[in-house]
Write a structure and sequence with these properties.
By secondary structure, the chain is α/β, with parallel strands linked by helices. It has a domain of 169 residues: Alpha-Beta Horseshoe (Leucine-rich repeat, LRR (right-handed beta-alpha superhelix)), CATH 3.80.10. The chain is 27% helix and 20% strand. The protein is built from 6 helices and 28 strands. The strands form 8 sheets. Strands 1, 2, 3, 5, 6, 8 and 10 form a 7-stranded mixed sheet that branches. A 6-stranded parallel sheet has the order 18-20-21-23-25-27, with no helix packed on it. The longest helix is centred in the C-terminal third of the chain and has 73 residues. It is elongated, with a radius of gyration of 51 Å. The N terminus is likely disordered.
Length: 449
């Protein structure tokens, strides 16, 4: 009985699924190599025969109804199709819709399309050119992943986001970025080994991690002034970058952000407070580096193996440097010569006149032979004048000393006389008191009698 009940229970659970699947299969119809469904008066292309070749045209209408959607994986793995004609009735295209169409070389997405999903041209090995709708707002996740023949893309104005790995491992050489771009996710151009130049628009505030990692042909990078943060590995191993200007609003540089690039000089602007681990390590050509006064934290191995760099230009003072939090394993940074833009205050030096007076020695007068001959009478007169003046000085000094001594003796006498007078007054007062007391006692006794 239990077995029967369990079987019935399982059938109750499974039958609805089977019926739904059956209903779905019944709704799918075909037109040539295409499969489609009708929902809410509109047609969605759901599949295509993988044996289809040459050009496939998606019709504008089927059964009198507009075709508005190319569904998820609709043309996935159709490796023999070389071209698609997409009508202006299409509004959205689902995920992996054209993935692994290996003979597809060119495609135009009409302006009627407002939404494209992820991995749209994932691993389309022969794809060279794509013309996008002007009304999309995003290039999603892995859109052009491993498109090895893709050379040039113009992203239309209105696009605000490039998704994770959108162009990663593609052969893109040039890409026009719209001024409307606000966000570029990590790995967006990871290992685009043929990308030569990139200009990022104003309004972009962050370059996410590994955005241009291993773009080893990248030579020219223009960063917007609005940029505030460069995250880890952003330009890791971009060895052909020989010059880069960091924008004035930059505040943070992540771990290994510029590891192993080819620049000779880097000026980190004022406002940057953080430099991550190994941010500029293995920059073998780096010879000149300017560090801002605003810097607060420097992580490990910042200049590891930067053998050509021997000194740091620091826009602060030695006292400012001592406030920087410098992490360990920074032997290269610590051993380099620091050139300070602000000199530490020094002790005030003595004036030139004082120095000159200390160093100046009395000069000997060299007189001519005529002037050196002085008569004996003149010599005797001068000697007598000298002796008399010395006597006068000595007499004056003696008089002063005797006057000083006399004054001292008179002062001592006055002090003694004053003390004697004080004792006489005190004694007289005491006698008066005693005599008054005695008189009082006598009078008192006399009254009693």
């Amino acid at each position: 009985m239990k077995k029967v009940l369990s079987i019935i229970f399982c059938l109750i659970l499974v039958l609805p699924i089977i019926s739904v699947t059956a209903e779905t299969d019944e709704n799918i119809k075909t037109l040539g190599v295409l499969s489609y469904v009708i929902e809410n008066g509109e047609v969605t292309i759901t599949d295509c025969d993988t044996s289809a070749t040459g050009t496939v045209e998606v019709p504008q209408e089927i059964e009198g109804l507009p075709v508005t959607v190319i569904g998820d994986e609709a043309f996935y793995g159709c490796e023999l199709i070389e071209n698609f004609v997409i009508p202006s009735t299409i509004k959205q295209i689902g995920r992996y819709a054209f993935s692994q169409c290996n003979k597809l070389e060119s495609i135009t997405i009409p302006d009627s399309v407002t939404y494209i999903d992820i991995c749209l041209f994932h691993r389309c090995d022969s794809l060279k050119t794509v013309t996008f709708s002007k009304n999309i707002t995003s290039i999603p996740y892995l859109t052009f992943f491993e498109c090895h023949k893709l050379e040039r893309i113009t992203i239309p104005e209105g696009v605000t986001e490039i998704g994770i790995g959108a162009f990663s491992w593609s052969s893109i050489q040039s890409v026009d970025i719209p001024s409307t771009l606000k966000n570029m996710e990590r790995n967006a151009f990871l290992e685009c080994s043929k990308l030569k130049s990139i200009t990022l628009p104003e309004g972009l505030t962050k370059i996410n991690s590994s955005t241009f990692q291993y773009c080893d042909s990248l030579e020219s990078v223009t960063l917007p002034q609005s940029l505030e943060k460069i995250e880890k590995n952003a330009f890791f191993f971009c060895k052909k970058i020989t010059s880069i200007t960091l924008p004035k609003n930059l505040k943070s540089i992540g771990d290994k952000a510029f590891d192993n690039i080819g620049v000779e000089e880097i000026v980190v602007p004022e406002g940057v407070t953080y430099i991550g681990k190994g941010a500029f390590s293995l920059c073998e050509n780096l010879k000149k580096f300017t560090l801002p006064k605003s810097i607060k934290t420097i992580r490990q191995q910042v200049f590891k193996n930067c053998d050509s760099l021997t000194e740091i230009n620091y826009n602060g003072s030695k006292a400012d440097r001592e406030k920087i939090e410098i992490f360990g394993d920074n032997e290269k940074l610590e051993s380099m010569k620091w050139i300070y833009a602000i000199k530490s205050p020094e002790k005030p030096a003595s004036s030139k006149k004082e120095t000159a007076s200390k160093q100046e020695k009395p000069k000997k007068e060299n007189n001519s032979s005529k002037k050196s001959k002085i008569t004996s009478s003149e010599e005797s007169v001068s000697k007598e004048e000298t002796i008399s003046s010395e006597k006068l000085v000595s007499n004056e000094e003696t008089a002063n000393e005797s006057q000083t001594a006399t004054t001292g003796e008179e002062t001592m006498k006055n002090k003694k006389e004053n003390k004697n007078k004080l004792w006489i007054v005190i004694t007289a007062f005491g006698v008066l008191v005693l005599s008054g007391g005695a008189t009082f006692l006598i009078l008192t006794k006399f009254k009693k009698r």
